[in-house]
Amino acid sequence: MPSYHEVMSTDLSALVTAADAWDALAGGLSATQDTYRSEVYDITLGPAWVGESADAARRLFGATLQEYATFRAQAEGVAVLLRDAHAQLVPLRSAVEAAAREAVAAGMAVSGQGRCRLDFGRLPEAQRTAALHDPGLPAVEQSWTDHITRAVEAVTTADTAFAAAVKGATATAGPAGA
Q: How far apart, in whole angstroms, are the C-alpha atoms of residue 79 and residue 62?
């Protein structure tokens, strides 16, 4: 579970940068697949190579072509997952930021852990003394802390779903190519 500090300090643009890298990998795999098809696989289709060895090579080379296609699709899928995570996490972090701003506007100081305490430094002296003796103050502080915690929990829920999607997108083993 990400902490308040982690939610507030994580550079979510890294998800888009990583997605771009996965897209570039997918493009490279596509180009390599095209080259492999024309320079290796296609030689098994022409009249210059026939017989059992050509048939065996065609099966193995075809499996390799399929592996390139599978790896490219997986790279594209990872890029999509990363962009989806970014699209979900940015507004959720904005909600955490908004919750913290609301707490500050209500007179709270928000710690690096997302805990709220009345900001006595912003109160006139007379109100400080009254606030110190207010039996309801701990409940008010806790309600603001809970408000921020709920926003952080929404980020955690999305982060957990993203992690599960990544774990569920495991590579499947196929026939060994050449």
A: 26
What the block records as the tokens of 25 is: 């990998």
- Rounded-to-integer distance, Cα 55 and Cα 53, Å: 5
* 85-105 pLDDT, tens digit each: 999 999 999 999 999 999 999
- State whether the Cα torsion 41-45-49-52 is positive or negative: positive
Give the CB-side neighbour count of residue 120, counting CA atoms within 13 A.
10
pLDDT at position 125 is 87
Residue that is written with structure tokens 């495991």 in the block:
170
Long-range Cβ pairs for the range 80-84 (8 Å, 24+): 80/19, 81/162, 81/165, 81/166, 81/169, 82/15, 82/16, 82/18, 82/19, 82/22, 83/15, 83/16, 83/19, 84/162
Tokens of 155: 């980020």
The arithmetic mean of pLDDT across residues 112-133, rounded, is 91
- Reported as a single tens digit per residue, the pLDDT across 105-122 is 999 999 999 999 999 999
What lies within 8 Å, CB to CB, of 120 at 6+ separation is 128, 131, 132
DSSP state of 171: P
Tens digit of each residue's pLDDT (9 = 90 or more) over 11-23: 999 999 999 999 9
Assign 116 to helix, strand or coil: strand
